[in-house]
Amino acid sequence: MQGFIYPNEFELHWGLLVVLYPYITGLVAGAFILASLERVFNVKEVQPTYRLALLTALAFLLVAPLPLLAHLGHPERSYEIFLTPNRQSAMAMFGFVYAWYLAVVLLLEIWFDYRQDMVLWARQSTGLKKWVYYALALGSTDLSEKALKFDDSAGRWITVIGIPSAFLLHGYVGFIFGSIKANPWWSSVLMPVVFLFSAMVSGIALVLVLYMITTMFRWRRIDMACLDKLAQFLFYAMVVDFSLEMLDFIHRLYESEESIEILGQMIESRLFISLIVLQIFMGSVVPLVALGLVSPGLRKGGFVRVPPELKQFVYFTAAVLVQIGIFSIRWNVVIGGQLFSKSLRGLTVYKVELLGLEGLAMTIGLLALPFVILWVLVKLLPPWQSDEEVAPA
Amino acid sequence: MPQQVPRLIAVFVVALAALIGARMALVPDTFGDLGHYRAAAVDSITAHPKKYAGHAECSLCHGPIAEQRLTSNHRTVTCEVCHGPAAQHTTAPMDIKPTAPRERGLCPLCHSYNPSRPTGFPQIDEVAHNPLTPCITCHDPHAPEPPEVPEECSACHGQIARQKAVSHHTNLQCTVCHEAREEHKVNPRANRPSKPVQRSFCGVCHAQDDLSGERIPQIDLRSHGEPYMCWQCHYPHRPESG
């Protein structure tokens, strides 16, 4: 502790799990927006990642509310926000935003996209598996040309609805923080927009990493055109995201409200590693420079021509650094907003617990859970194309 | 109509019906009558059996102790805060006895060091302060006075002492700025120490025409921050914090 703080500011109420929650919802929204590139905007190069992105979004969406349930306690009461909706509370309305996105957008889009395959798998399989696929297809076994065309157009329309829904899902998370007038670190109208673009960055980077890992483990050759396109969009999303973040900083500096001095002290001391080193330098500048040089974002073929293996390594490293950077953004927003006193005269500290309902072990567990769910989903609904090239031995 | 549509509609209708059914079955009748809660909860809470008697009931039988407490530093801490709910004791005084905490664990709930507690509130470091000795060995909880008069200001003003220790004012004794009468140590709230009341007091070291040397920040007292006292903007226990 340093300087003066009010009594109720000594302990932070929102800890590591509340950092995890916007990080996970951001990945959901970002992965879905990437999937919509192929579906709505007809970016054919990223087609190999379309289904993987949808399944990734679903796996992370299923885990998204768990950090909140663990943080709030009494998960057995959580259904009550659906039964007695409180329209005065943005947090209470999240249940409906979540349900809309899960049931109307993601599950429907995956269902329409996979229906044909599920029917075919049901026909090829035997025993329990046959009935699982039959039930998943809701017994809708019509594979006529007209029915398949309907699947396609319905999927496209749902994606069109899904894009503003994904914006709603993660914009809402930024809105929660941005609308807290009493906290100068959070209260910014740019907050939902910054959250949105950082969501896109994290979602694209995650799918890029997952695509590379899954392709390598399946002994298939990585589609470089797809990877280049992913890196290109990652670069563009990062440029916009980084510009918005810098705009936010410059705006705060220019406004120079009375809080600017304590916020400056906080950045120089408490947040130096997580904001200056991890978020800005490691998570933004280094990947931006790397992708700017190697990816086709600024020049076709990149400024520096490198062998595909090195290119893959650069993309992979940049995407991992981006993940660290985006997690740092969430940390800096959630934790940073509670480290300084509302008296603007002092700073407190946050120490992460190892065990317990809100500790590091729980966070790691919740972060690992979506990957387990994704593994199950991939086993059940393989997202791979049959015409992929086998990697040379 | 394609085959998919009626099946999906059926799924959504079932989900919607389940939600409506759950609402009808689970939302209490009086929910929302008074606000976003079950209005009947007010009645069910008031119907709970009384557990606390209130300190007026205690003083009927324990008059001398109650009077002693009323003039002590624990005058705002009522009997049942330490002794627990005593409503049953008032109906059967000899059969049901309230607890009398004698172990070391209870007092630190309020008196262990915590930066969020107000300055001047007696706080101790449980580990270092007479380890293993029950608090009531030295302190009478009905009239808690320190058995020895504190030698240092930091005994009660730990938070200020910790801040001052790492500030530019570290070498200044508390008594340079505060005059504390001896009675302050025994009855602190009735005998508060003084604070500087003249801007010229800080000017002894910080005015432009003083003799303190250039390494100490100096300002023109006539133009800087009139008409406020220096400590209204600068926190003297850690002046560099703003």
Number of strands of chain B: 0
Number of domains of chain A: 1
Shape field of chain A: globular
Give the low-pLDDT segments of chain B. Answer: none
Radius of gyration of chain B: 30 Å
* Name of the CATH homologous superfamily of chain A: Formate dehydrogenase/DMSO reductase domain
Work out the helix count of chain A: 14
Could you name the CATH class of chain A?
Mainly Alpha
Largest sheet entry of chain A:
2 strands, antiparallel
How much of the polypeptide of chain B forms β-strand, as a percent range? under 5%
Q: Note poorly predicted spans of chain A.
A: none
H-E order of chain B: HHHHHHHHHH
Query: What's the number of helices of chain B?
Result: 10
Summarize, please:
By secondary structure, chain A is an all-alpha fold. Chain A has helices spanning 16-39, 50-63, 66-72, 80-83, 90-124, 127-136, 145-178, 191-217, 224-255, 260-268, 272-294, 308-334, 336-339, 360-380, and strands at residues 2-3, 346-347.
Key descriptive features of the protein:
heterodimer, A: 393 residues, mainly alpha, Formate dehydrogenase/DMSO reductase fold, 14 helices, 2 strands, 69% helix, globular, B: mainly alpha, 10 helices, 33% helix
Indicate the topology:
The complex is a heterodimer of chains A (393) and B (242).
Chain A: E1 2-3, H1 16-39, H2 50-63, H3 66-72, H4 80-83, H5 90-124, H6 127-136, H7 145-178, H8 191-217, H9 224-255, H10 260-268, H11 272-294, H12 308-334, H13 336-339, E2 346-347, H14 360-380
Antiparallel strand pairs in A: 1-2
Chain B: H1 4-26, H2 40-46, H3 55-61, H4 63-70, H5 79-83, H6 87-91, H7 108-111, H8 158-165, H9 174-177, H10 199-206
